[in-house]
Amino acid sequence: MNPAPDADSAQRRRERARNSKAYEALCLSASRQRSRLRPSWAALSHRCVDLTDIPGVSAVTAQVILTEIGPDLRRFRHASAFASWLGLCPENRVSGGKVLSCKTRKVKSRAALALRLGANSLSRAKGYFGEFFRRMRAKLGTAQAITATAHKIARVLYHVLRTKEPYAETVFHKCDEHARRRAEMRLRKQAALLGFQIIPVPADSAT
Prior knowledge:
mainly alpha; 3% strand; 9 helices; globular; 2 domains; two-stranded antiparallel ribbon
C-alpha cells in the first residue's frame, strides 16, 4: 500500500483551509478599513482606474491594497522598489562573489498576502498570467510560482496606479515579441562568429 496519495490530499486540504482562513481575515480587515475610510472611496473611484481588470486582483484584493498602501505610490522610486517593499523580490546574499541565498524576505504585509492569494487563483486561468504561473510552476515549483506571479501583479499594479492607465494584456505580448527578436539577433551574431548562418524555418514546415 502506498500512502502518498492520501498524504497529498491531506496536504491539499490543509493548504485550502489555510488559504480560506487567510482570505476571510483579509475580507474582515478590508471591511473594517473601508468603514473607517468610506468618505474617500468615492473620490478614489474617480481618480483611479479599475484595478479589478488586472488578473488575480479581486475587489477584496484591491480594497486591501488601497487601504494598506493607498493610491499614491510616489514614495517608491520604481516598480522594483515597490515589489521589494512587499517582500516579493529575491534577496541575494553574496559572499566572496558566491551567491549564498536568493530567498525572498519575510514581510508581514496584508497587501503582499492578498497578492499571493490572487496569484494562486491564476493556476488554471487563461491568458498571459495563467500561462506564466503554469510555466513558473513547472520550472520552480508551486511556492516560487506564486511569489513570481505575485511579483508580476505588483509591478502591473504599480504601473496602473502611477500612470492611471487601464490594464492591457497586449503589453506583455509586445514584450515577449521584443524578447524573441533580441534572442534571435543574439543567436545570429553567435552563429556569424562561428561561421554559420541561421535560416528561419516557416511555421508550416516546422509543424
